[in-house]
Amino acid sequence: MNILHITDLHLDEFEGENEFLRKGFYEEYIDRLFSTIDYKLALYKIDFLIVTGDFINIGKTENYNFVEEILKYLSKKFSIDKKNICLSIGNHDYKWKELTEVDIHKEKDLKIPFKEFRNKFNSDHIVDLDYVYLTKLAENYFFLSIDSSWRSEGGAPGNLRTAEEDQIISTIKKYLDKDSHLLIGCHFPIISFENNFLAGEEIDWHENHIWIKANSLRDRIKRIETKNTIWFHGDVHASDQKIIEHEIFVMTSKFGGKPGTSEQKRQAVILSINENNVLKATCSYVFPTHGQHPSLGDWNCSDFKELRTFKPIKINEKVNSNELISYNTEVENEILRLIKDKGLYKFGRFHVSDEYISLGWVEINKLMTDKELLNRIADKCYEIITAQITNPNENTLFLGIEIIGGKLASQLSVRFNVKNSIIPVRKKSEHYSEFEFSHTTAFKLISAVQNIVIFIDLISSGNTIKELVEEVYSKNNNVNVHVISIISNDIEGKLISIPNTKSYNTFCAKLKIPIIKHNEMPDEDFLKPNIQYN
Amino acid sequence: MNRRVYFETSNTVYTRAQALVWVANGLSELHLFEKSSGKLLSQIIDNLDEHKSLLVNFKGIVRFDDHSLDEVYDSLKDNKKQLVILNGEQLFLELNRLKKGKEVNINHDTSNKIIVLGNSKTVKIIDFLQEKEQCVEKYVIQVLQSTFTPSNEYKRLSSTPFLANGEFNSKKIIESPRDFMWFSFYMSDKLDEIIKSEKLTDIVLVSSSLRGAIFTSILGILNNLEYVNIDHIGPIHKVYDFESLNIAHQDRNYFYVGDFVFGGTEIKLTKVYASFIGAKLNHALVLGSLFDSEVFKDFKLHELHTLHKIREEADYKLFDKK
């Protein structure tokens, strides 16, 4: 299924001269979008249109007729069935300034123009309440529209009562199951995104634009098992996305309004939901010069990028192939994003072993101070271990290499009630005392266990892990060794072979870390090392 | 029944809701008591002697999953057994809502700040808490004692001027799932107490050793605090990755977390590094210390116990090159 998401049309002066969606230009604007999408993505069709509020500007309800005209043209152009047009209310879509205090009766009256406008498209709702409606779009596809301005004060994100929240949850539970795709239209973002460039421009920006009070609602929806739960947001006039487990959050910049700062791009997003993945492409309206007259720009569409995959866990029998396997694409994307956003990849001369110098360095200690990421990886490790080892208990030992491996091994040992040991490996570089190196009781269990799981932060040349696996086998040749790394060096799409491991799992297989032998590098007089091994 | 998730005294069984969450569901959602944690709790109730009270510390739990207490209420339904909730008064309405018509007594004892479920017999809460405290304290001391391995001769302790007739090894705590979990909670409570009593804000936990890093990260998760792991300053002062210090922490309150302290060198050096990036380091929490905290003037040391109290035979001499 393909979904077109637009938001924040902010129609102010339909007959004016300076609007993207003005009378004399909107068809051309939409035609250009259609051509670009058609040419770039070659989609068979768009199935659903989702628009997440602010159809009109500052409560100008007299503009709904014009917005209706625009949306009808858009749906005709993209051949979208009227019943598949899903609309959610935004804070500009009613005259909230006429509310001097919270008064839901008056608020309902003020929102009637929107409701009438909305029902001209899709009025066949399974559930239709003041603050939410649910529509079945197709087999297993549902659209839930939540009024994030319900019981709002001063146009800020609203406030759902517990009973209302319970009602939303019970509605979802009643009609959806694990095979359902839940598409949620919600004007105010329910989570914070990094790309909030306006946050510094406005006092109390987060309170005014992020629906923090609905955290519990989001948390409860998250717990309902679905095939996909996708939140579509608007309001902040910026574009971003987040993927947290099976939840996807798509925030799209505005579609209409008047030209403002160059930062505020006009955008449309296309999401393609397939059997094994969810893809996203972003179309942006770009201008050839600094001038921003609406007529001057044109749509530019990105390629589809994968947001989520539903690949099953791969279990390798005694890994001999060197196919590079990443366990979980969502975690991989998150790792890559954090490394990029936080600038955690460095180039230089990093001594990593007697044999090799690495030309790239990932600050993985810093990366793993992100508690959310650490916990997600630990949860995924739990799934890997449960899938690969039957009843891990006293027959199993966890070995954690250095700080990060040690954290995972110790935290997971509590869940499985399995002994663990932290293994410092930089012995040759004299980073540790003899006392720290002396392996303790748990390590001595190697000869008595059937399964060993080794947790390691990053596999670069593979020397460290290979040496440890060899040491393990020298003590117990019959043991099954499983390796879980957070990052594995992507050397031309191949996995570094670790002989005889029962399984080799990594969370990130798309990061290249060039390594080179010491004798292939210029002398240190020419290029000083950033990190000394010895 | 897995005894690692609770302590037993003559009149009580004690556990912690977040311990059940950790075992059943991991560390991602420590504020949420979900169904698998409820199942663990119901198993403890099923195995509970009727004359004992089950004390459950609900500190940190904010919410219940819809069916999380179904099995708990089934285990309590004839009201023969007693469950006492500590640190969970705010959950009273939720507990009632989730009862769903089951015949389980739920009483809120506001004077003692507890909620009593099931059997309504009088709760001797002061006695019970004292019993539980003694049991936990005894366990903590026993585990700390077990970390000491005596040696036949006096050996130099790395980065200190001391010779010792044995070594304390916190790895023994980390290696044992039960000990690691309960020490994490025990230290987490200590940390919480210190933060409140010292009125500390803008805290970043910091470790500068391999073992310290393990405790720091789990305390960061349990107490929802930022943390930094310097790799590393002690026991050998050889920082491998200086980039971990390249961080904007101007004016933040660094709080050192480590295992055993002798001369305090690691903490002092960490303080210097912290100062270098504009942060302050005035507090440290450790498992054990050779000296009483008054000895250290550069920072306030909070130790679980002194080493002499842990093991009387642990002996130290000043290193003499001759």
Shape of chain B: elongated
Helicity level of chain B: 25-40%
Contiguous low-pLDDT stretches of chain B (5 residues minimum) are none
> Could you list the spans of chain A in which at least 5 consecutive residues all have pLDDT below 50?
312-324
Task: Please tell me about this protein's structure.
The complex is a heterodimer of chains A (534) and B (322). With 534 residues, chain A is α/β, with parallel strands linked by helices. Helix content of chain A is 27%, strand content 25%. Chain A contains 14 helices and 22 strands. The longest helix of chain A has 18 residues, at 371-388. The radius of gyration of chain A is 27 Å and the shape is elongated. The N and C termini of chain A lie far apart (56 Å). By secondary structure, chain B is α/β, with parallel strands linked by helices. Chain B folds into two domains: 3-127, 2-Layer Sandwich (Transcription Regulator spoIIAA); 150-318, Rossmann fold. In chain B, 35% of the residues lie in helices and 26% in strands. Chain B is built from ten helices and 16 strands. Chain B has helices spanning 17-25, 35-46, 70-76, 92-97, 125-146, 171-175, 177-198, 210-222, 265-276, 307-310; strands at 7-8, 12-16, 32-33, 53-57, 63-64, 82-86, 106-109, 114-118, 148-156, 162-168, 203-207, 226-229, 253-261, 280-289, 300-306, 316-318. Chain B is elongated and about 70 Å long. Classes of the chains: A alpha/beta (534), B alpha/beta (322).
Give structural attributes:
heterodimer, A: 534 residues, alpha/beta, Purple Acid Phosphatase, chain A, domain 2, Rossmann fold, 2 domains, seven-stranded mixed sheet, 14 helices, 25% strand, elongated, B: 322 residues, Transcription Regulator spoIIAA, six-stranded mixed sheet, five-stranded parallel sheet, 16 strands, 35% helix
